[in-house]
Amino acid sequence: MEKLNALKGFKDLLPGESEKWEWVASAVRKTFHAFGFSPIRTPILERTRLFTRSIGETTDIVEKEMYTFEDWDGKPVTLRPEGTASVVRAFLEHRHQILALPAKFYYQGPMFRHERPQAGRLRQFHQVGAEIIGEIDPEQDVELLSLLSYFFQRIGISDLTLEINSLGCTVCRPPYRAALQGYFGAQLDTLCEDCNRRFHQNPLRILDCKKESCKAITTDAPASANHLCQECDAHFKAVQEGLSSLKLPFVISKHLVRGLDYYTKTAFEMTTQNLGAQNAVAAGGRYDGLVEALGGASTPAIGFAMGMERLMQLLPESDIRYSALQLFIVPLGEAAHQHVFPVLYDLRRKNIRSEIGKSGAALKKQMKQADRLNAAFVLIVGEQEMEMGKAVLRNMKTKEQVEIELFNLLEGVIAQISP
Ligand code: ATP
Ligand code: MG
């Protein structure tokens, strides 16, 4: 029979790894909360049109990566490939409930893209993202970038570079596009097939091509920052000054573009040297045109998304100790078992992760089980201990043992094992 394994590019998340994810998710909640963001959850399935319209017909995602199929009624639907389009859709759909602008949302969840699976590239992957909708002030860009920088610092990931650029706006983008076409026009023979197509449709995307031959040509291409209108130029400078005022390091990456069409002005990536070819851990930018493109009033916005899988690869191992068992109870004999079984329930209700051995098993066997579960403490209750009215609590690390009165077992144990 054919094995019923998970699909290619789809991954199970098992204990050992899944606790790390929970730990990061909880750091996300605390940090994003402090920066004034509220959680939002949008559906995983949306109308296909939402993504084609917002992400853009000529992007990799829409051209070849979407999980699109017909719903039972024949309507085209798509598993979301990214989060921003859905957040903006929800913002517009519930606009009347949102009293204060800017609205600040964050999300965590799965995204789906039919890419070639490889290291750091899955078909179902997970993103954490944040969006600020309704404010043009460059200070918002700085706030968002300060959140991104601080978050990585908080979870212990260093060695990241914040790369920023400005992509201009509807005023200065067309002349920049023309400048790019002027530059690449002389090199069409050397550019790849995809880039030849991009040349006509969306020449900015040539700058994002991953092929070495195209990258080489790109080196001397015109930079968008040199083609900015006065407003975009002032905005870009204000962002840089704001970052400096918070002492946040950054570099200007003159050919940084985003794959998605709706970006304007500030674009950025958090990159690392430690992940090989897939070097972006987080990416984002301003998308002042998107809300209007989706049918709302003209509303500026900015956001980012970070890839959980890539972030996980960078997370230092040493900080993660939360899956260990706090207490393993070793009852020896039925009487001991009856006495401590209710205590197990009490301990768990006090948030102490605990397990109990099989009372029929020998001490040695139960201790082995405690070791396997990586228990920090073991509570031994044998026949002798029952007679003396005392149990023995052993610190598995220091090997120190203390006696605890049976009549006050719960409090006695908690007093010893709570840090
Ligand atoms: P790339 O240039 O690496 O394809 P992208 O421009 O498609 O990136 P975004 O759409 O900006 O990426 O997504 C933001 C982040 O989500 C990326 O920086 C990365 O960490 C993560 N990400 C994107 N696609 C995948 C994937 N297929 N598998 C795992 N993580 C991904
Ligand atoms: Mg991609």
Overall description:
It is a single chain. The protein has helices at 18-34, 48-55, 60-65, 84-93, 138-154, 173-185, 193-201, 212-218, 230-245, 290-293, 308-314, 334-349, 363-372, 383-388, 409-417, and strands at residues 38-39, 45-47, 67-70, 76-79, 103-112, 124-133, 160-166, 251-252, 264-272, 280-286, 301-307, 327-331, 354-356, 377-381, 390-395, 401-405. The protein has 419 residues and is α+β, with helices and mostly antiparallel strands. The protein has two domains: 18-172 and 228-319, BirA Bifunctional Protein, domain 2, CATH 3.30.930.10; 327-417, Anticodon-binding domain (Rossmann fold, 3-Layer(aba) Sandwich). A hairpin with a 7-residue loop joins β9 and β10 (280-286). Residues 60, 259 line the site of magnesium ion.
Short description:
Helix content is 37%, strand content 21%. With 419 residues, it is of the alpha+beta class. The protein is elongated.
Question: Characteristics of this structure?
Answer:
2 domains, binds adenosine-5'-triphosphate, alpha+beta, BirA Bifunctional Protein, domain 2, 419 residues, single chain, 21% strand, Rossmann fold, binds magnesium ion, five-stranded mixed β-sheet
Give the proportion of residues in helices: 25-40%
End-to-end C-alpha gap: 52 Å
- Share of β-strand residues: 15-25%
Radius of gyration: 28 Å
Number of helices: 15
- The shape, in one word, is elongated
Count of extended strands: 16
Main sheet properties: 8 strands, mixed
Bound molecules: adenosine-5'-triphosphate, magnesium ion
CATH superfamily of the largest domain: Bira Bifunctional Protein, Domain 2
